[in-house]
Amino acid sequence: MDNDQLESLWEDALPLVKIPSYPSFEYRLGTGKEWTYSAQETSHLMKIERRLADKDERLLDVDLKYIPDYSKNLKYRVELLQLARDNLEYQELQRIFCKSSLLYFVNTFCWTYDPRLKNTHIPFVTYPFQDELLRWVLWLMSNHEMGVIEKSRDMGATWCMEVIAVYMVLFFPGIVDYQLSLREEDVDNRCEDSLFGKVRYLLRNIPLWLRGGWEEKAQDIDLKMNLKIPKTGSLIRGQLTGGTAARSGRSTRALYDEFAFVDDSDKVFRASTSLTSCPIFLSTANGMGNMFYQKAHDPHIRKRTLHWSLHPMKNPLWATKERLKSDEESWASEQEINYSQSTRGRVYKHFISFSSSPERWTHLQEGSYFQYDPNYLVDIGMDLGISDPTSIVFTQTKPAPVLFQQHTKTCLIVFKELEASDKIIDDWIEILQALQWSTTNIEGFRWRHIVGDNRTGKQRSPTGITWTQAFYRHGLSFVGKSNSEIAPIVEVQRLLAKPGAFAINRHACPHLIKSFQNWSYPMEKGTGLILDQAKPLHNRWSHSMKAMAYLVDYLYGQTLGLKDPNQNEYWDFRVLNHRKYL
Predict the structure, then answer these.
(1) Which residues pair with 276 in a beta bridge?
(2) H or E element: which one contains 419?
(3) In the Cβ-directed half-sphere of 356, how many Cα atoms lie within 13 Å?
(4) pTM of the entire structure?
(5) What's the pLDDT at 1?
(6) CATH classification of 16-25+70-313 is 3.40.50.300, yes or no?
(7) Domain 364-580: assigned CATH number
(8) What pLDDT is stored for residue 27 in this prediction?
(9) Rg (CA), the chain
(10) CA distance 378 to 395
(11) What whole-number distance in Å separates Cα of residue 473 and Cα of residue 452?
């Protein structure tokens, strides 16, 4: 951090040594009379046992999280409020302390809410990683910088962002803070699960003399998606994330909540440059095909990573229990900040990018065996682009690795990829011929099959010639087959399910790898389920995926979904119910 002591936006803030110290978080320890929980993992299950705690043992709840002890902090708050009662001088002194230190304000006066707990109202006692986050955001605001916060779920990050909003509008005039999220109910449904709901909860639970004249539901003070502090005149405004989100406004800070799940995230990001000097993009991971992923991996943008392991109440036992309850995508997205595995509704959810054991097959491989070998013929799959990019995958079929020959005899290896949108038919033919006679490949690629979509292959270019005709004129045989759109996808799924049957050269095919990790079906925003009768999304990932599917279906597949396949000479892309097959 550039300034780890920054706790205020006030130029005349008191030195931190003059701010009273407050009781910070502590673990609840056993005295020998309390219940605690322990666990034993057996195969794919976890056995949870309740037992009496040992003396001074950190207590665990039923979720296997450590239990915090707020008793000292609560006692401090009670004593402070008693001193402030009917004492205007002391109240003003507390305002100065709060304005001088955001952390003092939070840990002394703010509360948070968790409906999962028996005592749902909890004193907001920050953890060390939250202290660092709060200071960091204040630094960003002071220096007019953009920030990205990638996080595991349940780290209190959104509550931290909202307490900053409340701090700003309570103590500083002329502040405009924008709150942006996917849906109106996410921004403001007047409940604590929305952004404005958290703001109101924070304001409602601080002392009346500290609220700056705010009254809940008061006219012109507390409206839907619009909240004002009369004493400072500062505002919190809500907006929905869309391509023109808050383009006409100006703000001190703008918080973009769950930004990885915004459909038009690139347009929203561009709009943010004119909205505020300090945009904060906050989200769990949601694959690699979005602006949040790009900005989280941009070395020129400041970033904070809030992984669950930073949370002092969480531990490996808790993680093991939670992992057993989650599917791969949910755990990767909500806890591990794993972009490559976190896309919801992935078409190829069984594509394995990493493996901790050599006995478990991973589809990403490296080494000479997974490179081009002139002793084997080359098959390529093509997704022919007229207005879209053309994508090509280059493969060879080799004997399966020894450890996996009980599952399959052969392995289809992708050793090269090409994709471009600025080339015409003649350019691609020239590229393929150059590979065929390249001296760098000794004898050059020896083609066995060049497979593509005959429907596109029969379309004519501006010169009047089709792709198929152009290939044949240059001695290249272009082949395809009849099938529905779902059939090639099913064949790729079957190939992925066989350990050792399919591999991609990890270093030679980065775009194809990202495509496997990110190609997905459209999702219902409310339920998070795949839309029924839906095609996979047509996006930057789909072209290499179709090239791959055409080839796999041609090499391994059987006709599926057409009563008379001989009536068609191409994959017809009819929409079928994918849930029947996947």
Answers:
(1) 251
(2) strand 410-420
(3) 0
(4) 0.77
(5) 38
(6) yes
(7) 3.30.420.280
(8) 97
(9) 29
(10) 6
(11) 17
Residue 268's H or E segment, with its range, is helix 265-275
| The token pair that represents 477 in the structure block | 């045989």
Is the CB of residue 264 less than 8 Å from the CB of residue 243?
Answer: yes
* Sign of the dihedral defined by the CA atoms of residues 96, 101, 105, 108, in that order: negative
Quick one: tokens of 487? 């059939």
- The pLDDT tens digits of the residues spanning 45-87 come to 788 999 999 999 999 999 999 999 999 999 999 999 999 999 9
Question: Per the structure block, which two tokens stand in for 21?
Answer: 């110290």
The residue ranges of every structural domain in the chain are 16-25+70-313, 364-580
Tokens linked to 43: 């195969």
- Residue 554 to residue 563: CA distance in whole angstroms: 18
Long-range contacts at 174-177 (CB < 8 A, ≥ 24 apart): 174/232, 174/233, 174/234, 175/232, 175/234, 175/235, 175/252, 176/234, 176/235, 176/237, 176/249, 176/250, 176/251, 176/252, 177/234, 177/235, 177/236, 177/237, 177/251, 177/252, 177/253, 177/254, 177/255
What are the strands, taking DSSP E only, across 160-276? Answer: 176-181, 222-223, 226-229, 234-240, 253-257
| Residues in the chain with pLDDT values less than 50 | 1-4, 243-248, 439, 560-582
Sign of torsion over alpha carbons 309, 138, 185, 182: negative
Amino acid at 143: N
Find the distance separating the first CA and the last CA of the chain, reported in whole Å: 47
Question: Residue 442: its pLDDT value, please?
Answer: 57
